[in-house]
Amino acid sequence: MRRFGRTLVTAALAVTVVGGTAGWASGESQTAVTGPPPGTADWRADTASGRALPDPATATPREVARFFAGLDDAARRELLREHPLVVGNLEGAPLPLRYEANRIAIAATGEARYASLAAPDRQILAFDPRGRGQVAEVFGDLEHAEHVSVIVPGSDNDATTYGARRKPNTGPAGMAGALREATGGFTIVVAWIGYTTPVGVGLDAADGRLATAGATRLARFTDGLDAVGAPDPVLFCHSYGSVVCGLAARHTDASDIVAFGSPGMRADTAAGLRTGARIWAARGPSDWIADVPNVECAGIGHGADPTSAAFGARRVPAADVQGHTGYFKPGTQSLAAFAAIANGEGR
Q: Nearest Cα to 88, choosing from 184, 17, 18, 159?
């Protein structure tokens, strides 16, 4: 009887857990994009001023930063011209060099759906065209940042949909822009779609496979921020993105981790995340994520509700938030609280 009950729970989760912003729709299985960026084989075969290039698969971001610090401008630009996809995605490489590399890489795809990302005023910190595509964009001057926040989104986000028209203040770019404005421009914000997200509803949104792969990439991304001298980031983790953040928590140097609209963080308690970061949680009264069962069985489901008293996270006021994507709407309690956290108030 107990086994039958577990089977029912697993089946229910498989059809009801939703990881992102698209709402109730059928899901399709995704293959996680992992490993070093395209062009790595040619990069490994090359040299700079007679020196071997750091292996994107094994070199740490700090090792990458030291390597580029030892190159003159001519050598850097030669690598930029020859290997834009690698340079643009190489954590620890100089930020201006990555922005320029990604403009070149995006333009080289020749795809109209990416054309707006190559505009001169965009600061694209990462661009990977494999699969549905991954992208990260910086809002503000990351080289001279005093505070940095990273938006980690949930399902149905990728490089193809990144520039799609959405409701105001929703989607990774909309959230990033709203947060930066709410902080008075004091916080630099990165919209990070650096992992393969689930599509709609399905087992991908219900299990942790894509989140596990995403957590590895998020941890390396935060190491890259550290390697170029950026301050410890605040992670704002929406929906399935909070699963990614939960799994990455102990491997990042985040000062704060904010889960909102979360189906769970793959931990029973905030202490179970094993991080020194302050943990925050928010859920609006009409957010449908409340209907997702907060259990885990046979790898399906994401565990305890981060907004529950038993979890032990700090609560973010969200009584005036509407729906699953309204947390960054100007004037809401949640956005005001998010801005205060991002600006380091109360630490």
A: 159
- Quote the strand ranges of the chain, DSSP E: 47-48, 51-52, 124-128, 134-139, 148-152, 188-193, 234-238, 256-260, 278-282, 314-315
Structure tokens belonging to residue 57: 């698969």
Q: What is the pTM of this model?
A: 0.92
Token pair, residue 275, equals: 């991080």
| Tokens found for residue 283 | 């859920």
Length of the chain: 347
Output the six-digit token pair for 242.
């909070």
The SS3 of residue 201 is strand
Q: Which residues of the chain have pLDDT under 70?
A: 1-27, 298, 347
- Residue 294: per-residue pLDDT: 87
Whole-Å CA distances, 313 to 244, 279, 316: 17, 5, 9
CA atoms of 346 and 249, how far apart (whole Å): 21
* Integer angstrom CA distances of residue 282 from 248, 255, 260, 334, 335: 19, 17, 5, 8, 11
Dihedral sign for Cα 148, 113, 169, 27, please. negative
Radius of gyration from C-alpha coordinates of the chain: 20
Strand 134-139 and strand 51-52: pairing?
A: unpaired
3-state secondary structure of 127: strand
